[in-house]
């Protein structure tokens, strides 16, 4: 009896298990069918989004030439931008948007900016931020030149690109996004690679169809944001030979120190492989100076990012030149901290904005960390002052010092005199020297002498920056001789010295 009951119970359990299995298979089949249906719907949507082959055209550089996929919002924004460019946009709204620039640059400066034409070559991390600053600041006409598309790896440093922009040309990505900010700005998009044979057309006058081809304005400035050495040199040489103002961004890769970013003549750019290569190639072509560049004086060091050599596996694939999309373009991923290209781009745009608007621009020259130079200048000034005291008293008081330190020297050289001789404008073999012979002679400060401090009476505003040779002549003919600065120097030099002395007085309030 018990065996029969057990068999009946077993049969019941078997039925339950079987029902569960059948139910599970049915559920799995349903889920699979639903997923397959969703997959087919998504695939259909994707295929529908791909333009017909008749519309899909590739550039000579392998990129898509389509502007971008559009939706209703994009169409509305494009329509607003088109109306704004035709003048159907209240100028009071524009002036309100540019109010902060207006009070900074003055009405005259802002007017110049709103009439300007700037070309940006290269719209990666540097160029996209530079263009953003130009459009937000009121530049009226901007030509964008870049052959590349937005990629996922672009998003760590690009100013305006989003996931939705991946795969579209950078020129149209930047245009579309910035039209949302400043719809009145006219963009001339050139989805192509800069090359020397196309330079007259790419860097030529503005004759875009949006202006009806009537405005033949020449570019006020070119911002070079190219990261390929051959194209960069060709661009800079063309601008130099055709008197086109240009500011060039050197390498932001492997850099991380914002305080080391400098802007100055290319002859002063240091500690950057791209800058060094560009400088050498331009020298061979006869260009030694006269090109403004943004560069970093940051030096490499242990633990810092660096460009690693290609692996043996890459070399095994064939000639290195065949690995890139285009000839001579890099085939390695350059280590880039996303913040640094932005600062390079904004530095370049800042230079253009101020230069076009007529705002004063004077940059510190060379490396910002020149302690050895400052120490040498301080020691030479100490020696000169001791000799001048001796010429009056007949001896040098024991422990005689001057009331300056290295920070004071750096302040005078870099901040007040911009790293240049006030007489000749030279930037090498610099020295500090008194400008005028003191009316009460060269003597120890009596107040400090009572306290046991033997200091020469000397104020920062009494010193000027000159070269060593100029300092020797000045000491001989002015400080020891009978001549005054007015007897020795041209009126322009005297005016510049007076200007720098006034600036030192205003600067000293904030030290």
From TrEMBL:
Name of the featured protein: THIF-type NAD/FAD binding fold domain-containing protein
Record localization: Mitochondrion outer membrane
InterPro entries: ThiF/MoeB/HesA (IPR045886), ThiF_NAD_FAD-bd (IPR000594), Ubiquitin-activating_enz (IPR035985)
Homology family: Belongs to the HesA/MoeB/ThiF family.
Keyword Aminoacyl-tRNA synthetase in annotation: no
Organism encoding this protein: Endocarpon pusillum (strain Z07020 / HMAS-L-300199) (Lichen-forming fungus)
Molecular functions per Gene Ontology: ATP binding; tRNA threonylcarbamoyladenosine dehydratase; ubiquitin-like modifier activating enzyme activity
UniProt keyword list: ATP-binding, Ligase, Membrane, Mitochondrion, Mitochondrion outer membrane, Nucleotide-binding, Transmembrane, Transmembrane helix
Segments crossing the lipid bilayer: 16-34
Broad class of the protein's primary localization: mitochondrion
Residue span(s) of domain THIF-type NAD/FAD binding fold: 100-362
One GO location term (cellular component): mitochondrial outer membrane
SUPFAM superfamilies per the UniProt record, alphabetical: Activating enzymes of the ubiquitin-like proteins
BP GO annotations: cyclic threonylcarbamoyladenosine biosynthetic process
Highest taxon in the source lineage: Eukaryota
Pfam family, one: ThiF
Function as written in the Swiss-Prot or TrEMBL entry: Catalyzes the ATP-dependent dehydration of threonylcarbamoyladenosine at position 37 (t(6)A37) to form cyclic t(6)A37 (ct(6)A37) in tRNAs that read codons beginning with adenine.
Topology versus the membrane: Multi-pass membrane protein
Lineage: Eukaryota, Fungi, Dikarya, Ascomycota, Pezizomycotina
